[in-house]
Amino acid sequence: MFKNIKEAAIIWLATQDKEINRIVLNKLLFFIDAVFYLESGKTITEDVYIKNPNGPVPKQAEDCRAFLLRNGLIKENWYNMGQYREYGYKVIKNNTDPKKVKAEFDDDELPIIKNVLDKLSSCSASDLSEITHRHEPWKSTYWEEELDLSKIKEDSDFSDWLASKDLIKSVQ
């Protein structure tokens, strides 16, 4: 049974204005949770992240996308890229009230979600993946293992990068 409504809501919010590919969506979820974790010690989605070749992947992301597709809330396009397919997602307009989606979040969550989406959703999948590969917790985790998000707080370079993008307040 589908349980992670906040993760689904973030995917819905991220794809409201433009099509976003699967890797970028996974990284946006990670950055949203990383920023919130630095501020509160917890994540918004309450999901765990797995180390995959393109960076952290939320364990429940596929279930969330399937829920949104099954209920006609987003559409999926795929593109033949030669040796692989790339998937893109976009909201189907008029199927959901944005106010109802935003009501799923606490007051301290929405500003972080909006800020990360505003600052990073136009980045390429390869750029976002490369950023996650340079920092904890991805660096010290074995393939297909769960990332220890507490290591985010130990990586001052990651905090500096987030601050340089105005995603967190500068760490002194």
Q: What does this entry look like structurally?
A:
- Strands 1-5-4 form a three-stranded antiparallel β-sheet.
- The longest helix has 19 residues, at 22-40.
- A hairpin with a 2-residue loop joins strand 2 and strand 3.
- It has one domain (5-164).
- With 172 residues, the chain is of the alpha+beta class.
- It is globular.
- The chain has seven helices and five strands.
- The model has no long low-confidence stretch (mean pLDDT 91).
Task: Please write out the topology.
Elements: H1 5-14, E1 20-21, H2 22-40, E2 49-52, E3 55-58, H3 61-70, E4 74-80, E5 85-91, H4 98-102, H5 110-120, H6 125-133, H7 156-164
Helix pairs in contact: 1-3, 2-5, 2-6
Essential attributes:
172 residues; alpha+beta; three-stranded antiparallel beta sheet; two-stranded antiparallel ribbon; 7 helices; globular
* Annotation field: number of helices: 7
Molecular shape: globular
Strand-pairing-aware structural class? alpha+beta
Give, in order, the helices and strands. HEHEEHEEHHHH
* Order of strands, widest sheet: 1-5-4
Helix content: 40-55%
Number of domains: 1
